[in-house]
Design a protein that fits this description.
Layout (H helix, E strand, L loop, with lengths): L14 H33 L11 H30 L6 E8 L2 E6 L6 E4 L21 E4 L4 E7 L4 E5 L4 E5 L5 E5 L5 E7 L11 E7 L1 H14 L1
Parallel strand pairs: 1-5, 4-10
Antiparallel strand pairs: 1-2, 2-3, 5-8, 6-7, 6-9, 9-10
Helix pairs in contact: 1-2
Length: 230
């Protein structure tokens, strides 16, 4: 999760988020080089003594500032397209979970198991246990096995919502009457928090997302207990 005074992204908890962080650093270096070159050009033009006020054009400069931006855009576009295709790739998911947004909570349905669905509400501040996080902890977490591809189907019951978990590199719009899908794979065990990222009404800030990634054996035990309780 984010921490006070944090200026960058959260630590990556999935291979996809690692790719997004690498692309961010790549684009940042390109922007830094462009900014440095532009600043150098401006300083040079301001401090230089102009000796010819009648020069109207320069073919060499025209060619350079046409070709150079095209090359830079290519270096940005190629890794960007690669990541877009990776984000759309869903091959043989081990588990499918349907997340539905409501005003103002999330409900989860494990499509591979019968009668396994539950609502997930934010825990009020006065009910938080020591070590739990205000506005982020939910009474029922979405539990998934780690190191397994998980497909998430996202929709909404009433108005627009958005299911977003920054550490996993996920942000999917929840639209009433429409089913969107995404995939992720948690690379290590842990609890990863997110929040609705589409303004959906008065309690928009109070519908957190809590995903708990656990080893496969622990997940199977949790599934058995949930089915028995259902």
């Amino acid at each position: 999760m984010a921490h006070p005074t944090q200026a960058g992204f959260q630590d990556a908890a999935s291979p996809l988020m690692e790719e997004l962080l690498h692309f961010h650093d790549h684009a940042l270096m390109v922007i830094l080089m462009i900014s440095t070159m532009v600043l150098y050009t401006i300083v040079t033009m301001v401090t230089a003594k102009l000796t010819d006020m009648l020069v109207l054009d320069s073919q060499e400069i025209e060619v350079i500032w046409t070709i150079l931006p095209a090359i830079i855009l290519t270096f940005i576009a190629l890794p960007s397209l690669r990541i877009l295709y990776l984000m759309d790739e869903i091959n043989d998911p081990h588990l499918t979970v349907k997340a539905t947004g409501h005003q103002w909570y999330w409900s989860y349905e494990y499509s591979d198991y019968e009668n396994l669905e539950f609502d997930s509400y934010m825990i009020p501040t006065q009910d938080l246990a020591p070590g739990q996080f205000r506005l982020l902890e939910a009474d029922h977490r979405m539990v998934v096995p780690m190191e397994s591809p998980i497909r998430v189907l996202v929709s909404a019951e009433d108005v627009l919502h958005s299911w977003a978990v920054p550490a996993l590199g996920i942000k999917v719009d929840a639209i009433p009457g429409r089913l969107n899908q995404t995939t992720f794979m948690a690379s290590h065990p842990g609890v990863f928090f997110g929040q609705c990222s589409e303004i959906c009404g008065a309690n928009h800030s109070f519908m957190p997302i809590a995903i708990e990634a656990v080893p496969l054996q622990h997940f199977e035990n949790w599934i058995s207990l949930m089915i028995e309780d259902a």
